[in-house]
Amino acid sequence: MKGIRIAVDGYSSTGKSTMARQLAAALNFRYIDTGAMYRAVTYWALEQGYFQSGSLDKAKLITSLSRLNLDFQFSESEGKPVIHVNGRAVEREIRGAEVASKVSIVAQISEVRRFLVKQQQAIAEAGSVVMDGRDIASVVMPDAELKIFMTADPKVRAQRRFAELQSKGMEMTLEEVAKNLEERDYLDTHREDSPLIQTEDALVLDNTNLGMEEQLNLALGWAKERQA
Protein backbone atom coordinates (compact mmCIF):
# COMPACT_ATOMS: atom_id res chain seq x y z
CA MET A 1 0.00 0.00 0.00
CA LYS A 2 1.25 3.47 -0.87
CA GLY A 3 2.37 5.98 1.74
CA ILE A 4 -0.19 8.75 1.45
CA ARG A 5 -0.30 12.11 3.23
CA ILE A 6 -3.18 12.68 5.63
CA ALA A 7 -4.23 16.14 6.81
CA VAL A 8 -6.33 16.39 9.97
CA ASP A 9 -7.80 19.79 10.80
CA GLY A 10 -10.48 20.93 13.19
CA TYR A 11 -11.48 22.84 16.27
CA SER A 12 -9.66 22.74 19.59
CA SER A 13 -10.50 19.83 21.91
CA THR A 14 -12.05 17.65 19.22
CA GLY A 15 -9.42 15.00 19.83
CA LYS A 16 -7.44 15.74 16.66
CA SER A 17 -4.08 14.83 18.13
CA THR A 18 -5.28 11.61 19.75
CA MET A 19 -7.04 10.38 16.63
CA ALA A 20 -4.22 11.46 14.30
CA ARG A 21 -1.62 9.75 16.49
CA GLN A 22 -3.65 6.53 16.62
CA LEU A 23 -4.23 6.64 12.87
CA ALA A 24 -0.51 7.11 12.21
CA ALA A 25 0.31 4.16 14.47
CA ALA A 26 -2.25 1.93 12.75
CA LEU A 27 -0.79 2.80 9.34
CA ASN A 28 2.84 2.81 10.53
CA PHE A 29 3.11 6.44 9.40
CA ARG A 30 4.95 9.34 10.99
CA TYR A 31 2.78 11.58 13.17
CA ILE A 32 3.32 15.34 13.46
CA ASP A 33 1.36 17.45 15.97
CA THR A 34 1.63 20.93 14.46
CA GLY A 35 -0.43 22.37 17.30
CA ALA A 36 2.40 21.41 19.64
CA MET A 37 4.74 23.47 17.46
CA TYR A 38 2.61 26.60 17.88
CA ARG A 39 2.26 25.89 21.59
CA ALA A 40 6.04 25.52 21.83
CA VAL A 41 6.58 28.94 20.23
CA THR A 42 4.02 30.37 22.66
CA TYR A 43 5.80 28.75 25.60
CA TRP A 44 9.08 30.21 24.32
CA ALA A 45 7.50 33.68 24.13
CA LEU A 46 6.23 33.38 27.71
CA GLU A 47 9.56 32.05 28.98
CA GLN A 48 11.47 34.87 27.30
CA GLY A 49 9.16 37.49 28.79
CA TYR A 50 7.69 38.67 25.50
CA PHE A 51 4.22 38.79 27.07
CA GLN A 52 3.87 41.79 29.37
CA SER A 53 0.54 42.65 31.01
CA GLY A 54 -1.18 40.33 28.56
CA SER A 55 0.30 41.98 25.47
CA LEU A 56 2.81 40.30 23.18
CA ASP A 57 5.91 42.08 21.87
CA LYS A 58 5.66 40.65 18.36
CA ALA A 59 8.88 42.24 17.11
CA LYS A 60 10.96 40.59 19.83
CA LEU A 61 9.34 37.21 19.20
CA ILE A 62 9.89 37.41 15.45
CA THR A 63 13.54 38.38 15.92
CA SER A 64 14.05 35.49 18.35
CA LEU A 65 12.84 32.80 15.94
CA SER A 66 16.38 32.40 14.58
CA ARG A 67 17.41 31.23 18.07
CA LEU A 68 14.54 28.77 18.38
CA ASN A 69 15.06 25.12 17.48
CA LEU A 70 12.06 22.78 17.55
CA ASP A 71 12.19 19.04 17.07
CA PHE A 72 10.24 15.92 17.98
CA GLN A 73 11.91 13.14 19.97
CA PHE A 74 10.33 9.91 21.17
CA SER A 75 9.56 9.86 24.89
CA GLU A 76 9.45 6.50 26.66
CA SER A 77 7.37 7.93 29.50
CA GLU A 78 4.82 9.55 27.16
CA GLY A 79 4.90 6.69 24.67
CA LYS A 80 4.97 9.11 21.75
CA PRO A 81 7.17 11.73 20.06
CA VAL A 82 7.15 14.95 22.09
CA ILE A 83 8.32 18.39 21.11
CA HIS A 84 11.59 19.84 22.37
CA VAL A 85 12.51 23.53 22.57
CA ASN A 86 16.24 23.99 22.08
CA GLY A 87 16.83 20.42 23.20
CA ARG A 88 14.50 20.51 26.23
CA ALA A 89 11.27 18.49 26.44
CA VAL A 90 8.32 20.79 27.14
CA GLU A 91 5.32 18.49 26.63
CA ARG A 92 3.73 19.20 30.02
CA GLU A 93 4.50 22.92 29.92
CA ILE A 94 2.85 23.50 26.55
CA ARG A 95 -0.39 21.81 27.66
CA GLY A 96 -1.01 24.25 30.51
CA ALA A 97 -3.79 26.83 30.71
CA GLU A 98 -1.47 29.83 30.25
CA VAL A 99 -0.12 28.57 26.94
CA ALA A 100 -3.62 27.53 25.84
CA SER A 101 -4.96 31.03 26.48
CA LYS A 102 -2.25 32.70 24.36
CA VAL A 103 -1.43 30.26 21.56
CA SER A 104 -4.03 31.70 19.18
CA ILE A 105 -2.42 35.14 19.59
CA VAL A 106 0.96 33.76 18.57
CA ALA A 107 -0.56 31.69 15.76
CA GLN A 108 -1.93 34.86 14.12
CA ILE A 109 1.58 36.18 13.43
CA SER A 110 2.46 35.61 9.77
CA GLU A 111 6.19 35.32 10.44
CA VAL A 112 5.57 32.57 13.00
CA ARG A 113 3.30 30.71 10.59
CA ARG A 114 5.85 30.90 7.77
CA PHE A 115 8.59 29.73 10.15
CA LEU A 116 6.59 26.65 11.14
CA VAL A 117 4.89 25.89 7.81
CA LYS A 118 8.28 25.65 6.11
CA GLN A 119 9.33 22.98 8.62
CA GLN A 120 6.01 21.15 8.31
CA GLN A 121 6.13 21.05 4.51
CA ALA A 122 9.68 19.67 4.59
CA ILE A 123 8.45 16.82 6.79
CA ALA A 124 5.43 16.18 4.55
CA GLU A 125 7.52 15.79 1.40
CA ALA A 126 8.57 12.30 2.43
CA GLY A 127 4.96 11.07 2.51
CA SER A 128 3.57 8.40 4.85
CA VAL A 129 2.62 11.09 7.33
CA VAL A 130 -0.39 12.09 9.41
CA MET A 131 -0.31 15.77 10.35
CA ASP A 132 -2.89 17.57 12.45
CA GLY A 133 -3.53 21.25 13.05
CA ARG A 134 -5.72 24.04 11.73
CA ASP A 135 -4.31 24.84 8.28
CA ILE A 136 -2.93 21.49 7.15
CA ALA A 137 -5.37 20.84 4.31
CA SER A 138 -5.58 24.48 3.24
CA VAL A 139 -1.93 25.58 3.49
CA VAL A 140 0.61 22.96 4.59
CA MET A 141 -0.57 20.00 2.48
CA PRO A 142 -3.20 21.30 0.04
CA ASP A 143 -2.56 18.27 -2.19
CA ALA A 144 -2.84 15.68 0.60
CA GLU A 145 -4.49 12.45 -0.54
CA LEU A 146 -6.82 12.45 2.48
CA LYS A 147 -8.19 15.47 4.32
CA ILE A 148 -10.21 15.08 7.52
CA PHE A 149 -12.01 17.91 9.31
CA MET A 150 -12.88 17.17 12.94
CA THR A 151 -15.66 18.83 14.90
CA ALA A 152 -17.90 18.22 17.92
CA ASP A 153 -20.55 19.98 19.97
CA PRO A 154 -18.94 22.90 21.90
CA LYS A 155 -20.35 21.67 25.22
CA VAL A 156 -18.85 18.23 24.67
CA ARG A 157 -15.51 19.76 23.73
CA ALA A 158 -15.50 21.88 26.90
CA GLN A 159 -16.25 18.84 29.06
CA ARG A 160 -13.40 16.90 27.43
CA ARG A 161 -10.91 19.73 27.92
CA PHE A 162 -12.06 20.25 31.52
CA ALA A 163 -11.56 16.55 32.30
CA GLU A 164 -8.11 16.62 30.69
CA LEU A 165 -7.00 19.60 32.79
CA GLN A 166 -8.36 18.03 35.97
CA SER A 167 -6.47 14.80 35.28
CA LYS A 168 -3.27 16.87 35.10
CA GLY A 169 -4.01 18.69 38.34
CA MET A 170 -4.63 22.02 36.63
CA GLU A 171 -7.31 24.21 38.19
CA MET A 172 -9.90 25.82 35.92
CA THR A 173 -13.68 25.89 36.12
CA LEU A 174 -15.81 24.39 33.36
CA GLU A 175 -17.08 27.90 32.58
CA GLU A 176 -13.51 29.18 32.17
CA VAL A 177 -12.66 26.29 29.88
CA ALA A 178 -15.76 26.88 27.74
CA LYS A 179 -14.95 30.59 27.45
CA ASN A 180 -11.35 29.83 26.48
CA LEU A 181 -12.51 27.45 23.74
CA GLU A 182 -15.00 30.00 22.43
CA GLU A 183 -12.28 32.66 22.25
CA ARG A 184 -9.86 30.28 20.53
CA ASP A 185 -12.49 29.27 17.98
CA TYR A 186 -13.09 32.91 17.09
CA LEU A 187 -9.39 33.73 16.78
CA ASP A 188 -8.66 30.56 14.79
CA THR A 189 -11.46 31.15 12.28
CA HIS A 190 -11.09 34.92 11.94
CA ARG A 191 -7.33 35.47 11.68
CA GLU A 192 -6.19 36.98 8.39
CA ASP A 193 -3.35 34.53 7.80
CA SER A 194 -4.39 30.90 7.25
CA PRO A 195 -7.65 30.79 9.24
CA LEU A 196 -9.19 27.49 10.25
CA ILE A 197 -11.49 26.40 7.42
CA GLN A 198 -13.09 23.21 6.21
CA THR A 199 -11.81 22.66 2.67
CA GLU A 200 -14.32 21.52 0.06
CA ASP A 201 -12.61 18.16 -0.37
CA ALA A 202 -12.33 17.36 3.35
CA LEU A 203 -14.31 14.55 4.95
CA VAL A 204 -16.10 15.68 8.12
CA LEU A 205 -15.64 13.63 11.27
CA ASP A 206 -18.11 14.78 13.93
CA ASN A 207 -17.21 12.81 17.05
CA THR A 208 -19.79 14.31 19.42
CA ASN A 209 -21.29 10.85 19.91
CA LEU A 210 -18.36 8.68 18.82
CA GLY A 211 -15.87 6.82 20.97
CA MET A 212 -12.17 6.77 20.14
CA GLU A 213 -12.31 3.31 18.57
CA GLU A 214 -15.29 4.25 16.41
CA GLN A 215 -13.68 7.41 15.06
CA LEU A 216 -10.38 5.64 14.44
CA ASN A 217 -12.09 2.89 12.45
CA LEU A 218 -13.91 5.49 10.38
CA ALA A 219 -10.70 7.40 9.59
CA LEU A 220 -8.78 4.18 8.96
CA GLY A 221 -11.40 3.11 6.44
CA TRP A 222 -11.03 6.41 4.58
CA ALA A 223 -7.24 6.06 4.58
CA LYS A 224 -7.31 2.53 3.18
CA GLU A 225 -9.63 3.66 0.40
CA ARG A 226 -7.06 6.30 -0.59
CA GLN A 227 -4.22 3.77 -0.43
CA ALA A 228 -5.93 1.26 -2.71
Automatic annotation (TrEMBL):
This is Cytidylate kinase. It is found in: Cytoplasm. It comes from Croceimicrobium hydrocarbonivorans. Keywords: ATP-binding, Cytoplasm, Kinase, Nucleotide-binding, Transferase. Residues 6-219 form the Cytidylate kinase domain. GO terms for biological process: pyrimidine nucleotide metabolic process. It is an enzyme of class 2 (transferase). It holds the Pfam family Cytidylate_kin. Its EC number is 2.7.4.25. One of its GO terms (cellular component) is cytoplasm. GO terms for molecular function: ATP binding; dCMP kinase activity. The lineage of its organism: Bacteria, Pseudomonadati, Bacteroidota, Flavobacteriia, Flavobacteriales. InterPro entries: Cytidylate_kin, Cytidylate_kinase_dom, P-loop_NTPase. Belongs to the cytidylate kinase family. Type 1 subfamily. It catalyses: dCMP + ATP = dCDP + ADP; CMP + ATP = CDP + ADP. SUPFAM superfamilies: P-loop containing nucleoside triphosphate hydrolases.
